[in-house]
Amino acid sequence: HLLATQDFRPGLINSNNRVIRLLEAVKTLSDHVKGNGVILERLLVYQKLLDQARPTMKAKATLWIEELLTGMTSHLKDIRTKAMTLGMKACSAFPGSSSISLAVRFVLASELEPEKTFSMLMCRRLEKMIAAKEEVIQVPQIWALVLLLSNGLDVNIDSWSDLKDWLRVIQRCFNCSESAVRQQSNMAWNRLVYIV
Q1: Phi, then psi, of 83 in degrees rounded to 5
Q2: DSSP character for 63?
């Protein structure tokens, strides 16, 4: 918790690869300590580092992007909300960043099970969230964040091989009976139109 709330001097935090070492240590923390509190605190540390060490967070996106994407589809609302906040902060900090989009696409393309990529499993989780009344409102927001983070200056979203699966998710959101979900879906779709 201290790392997530402490403001470090720029010279201190950026010297001797401290941010990189911190990112590596925080990434492996759940190997030593179990529980949802660890995941929440990790997301808070990433948010603080986005404020204090933006260039390193951009350069070492592979060390934190997977936790961001996993957190956004968590079964726990607190973790999902913190991950979405981190995702929004990353979108505003790195608009159209090629290094971020490459890291996101690398994680999404990674094969977790035979013939099942992270992207496919994330889409299936979002589809399950559509069926849950308390989670459905967040699905279009998560959808938009993933697409915004997947788009870079060198890597356009329209050339993404997994785009078809993601379009099916937003289609199901548009077909939802709740007007708030359809409104969020329209806003998410507008973000897609903006980046294309």
Answers
A1: -65, -40
A2: G
The secondary structure element, H or E, covering residue 173 is: helix 163-174
Burial 99-125 (b: 16+ CB within 10 A, else e): bbbbbbbebbeeeeeeeebbbbebbeb
Cα separation, 191 vs 189, in Å, equals: 5
Cα distance from N-terminal residue to C-terminal residue, the chain = 39
Cβ(3)–Cβ(43) below 8 Å = no
Extended beta strands in the chain, E state = 111-113, 116-117
Is the whole-model pTM more than 0.85?
yes
Confidence of residue 9 (pLDDT cuts 50, 70, 90): low
Kindly report the CA angle at 71 between 141 and 130, in degrees rounded to 5? 45
Q: What angle, 0 to 180 degrees and rounded to 10, lies between the N-to-C axes of helices 36-52 and 77-93?
A: 20
Is residue 142 within 8 A of residue 169, CB to CB? The reply is no
H or E stretch at 196? none
Q: Which of 57, 60, 66 is nearest to 90 (CA)?
A: 57
Amino acid (one-letter) located at 192: L
Instruction: State the residue for tokens 């060490």.
Output: 53
